[in-house]
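I have been asked to look over a protein record a colleague put together. What it holds is a sequence and that sequence's fold in token form. Please read both lines and tell me whether the tokens look consistent with the sequence. I do not need a full report, just your reasoning and any doubts. This is what I was given:
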Amino acid sequence: MRAMRAETFSGYQGLKLVELPKPAVTDGKVLVRMTAAGVTPLDHTIVSGKFHGSKAPLILGNEGAGVVEQGGGTDFPVGSRVMFFGAYGAFEDGTYSERIAALKEDLCLIPDNVNDVSAAGIPVAYLTAQVALTLAGFRAGKTVLAPAIGGSIGNAVTQLARALGAKHAISSTTNHEQAKALGFHEVVDTSLEKLGDGVRRITNGYGADIVIDGIGGDVLSGALGALALGGRVTTLGYSASRKTTIDVTNLIVPQASIRGLNMFAQRKAAITDAWKVIISLLKSGAIKPIVAKTFPLAEAAAALRYLVEGRPFGRVVLTI
């Protein structure tokens, strides 16, 4: 089988197309013929040698979609379309491959109204977003801020919060017209105003009850200035920077709190509960994943470069 493997963690050039044996199926695992794989900032972090615990050579990709070929039992019969997320591509070989032996407990059936390319970009973004909302105490009527509407986390959180009854589901962009054209109207154009100022304007001075940030750096710093009384911040990504400067009064005055989220450390029950919410909303059409561009498997390096340097609005997906 073909796979895109990081032979070294030396950047894009470390990715090579290789031929490997089909993975063996052991107890608890299911052989999946991959049809599409999501490309994420974590993949770039790993291939750049900046992620703890990963060891080369390694097939990248920790999410994707495909068809069950063996080992799915009655829950996932042969021919079932599935999507999944896990430690793949970080601590074991991942989804940038024609086949993978995935844990049965990681699989989720793809709704009939969702194609494989869209499904491949759902697990990481939407599971992370739903788990983060739950841990932050989200309920209908809350105001949520998730910066970067074009990014995977910002978009997923905004769509989920809106679908689940948020009073305001706010994000940010530097391309306001594109966001509006895709149906996102509560978006702060940070080329025209500060993030915190924009949130206060949209909420008539109230601020955000929940902030979920997958960007880090100055974006996280700015988001802290948008907190409502008792607001909660969840930080879970660092595509802009791992470092930020915090004005502690943005936490002290509103008596706000900040926490981190590591999806690799979440209980299976939390993932299962998140899938139930996501699948229901996908079936109803209340949430709709956005795919910016697809690349063939052999062009995984170009796909990663496009994700990191092109800053697309929506997901980047490998077709296999």
About this structure: Residues 125-262 form a domain with the Rossmann fold fold (CATH 3.40.50.720). The chain has ten helices and 16 strands. The chain has two domains: 2-122+289-319, 125-262.
